[in-house]
Amino acid sequence: MKSQASFALLSLGAAVAGALSLAAMTAPAQAAEGEKVHCYGVAKAGENDCANKAAGHSCATQSKVDYSGQDFKAMTKEACLADGGSLTAFEGTNPKKMK
Whole-prediction pTM value? Predict the structure, then answer.
């Protein structure tokens, strides 16, 4: 009888540990959905969140060109791509936004 009780406790412990591991693995994926990325080519002049040395400035709100490929706004990946932005810096201005 003692061994059956021990086995039941071990089984229950293993089930709880498995459930906790599964929850821990899915939590980072859920957090990443709302994670902000650098979205290049979507900021109007003076509305960038930060800068790139190649753009010639080092602070937010200092961009001088609308939709520069060197300046970014922080936004989710999904919002960036939906807005026609790029996840990597590029030369020139964003032709998708210059319409």
Answer: 0.61
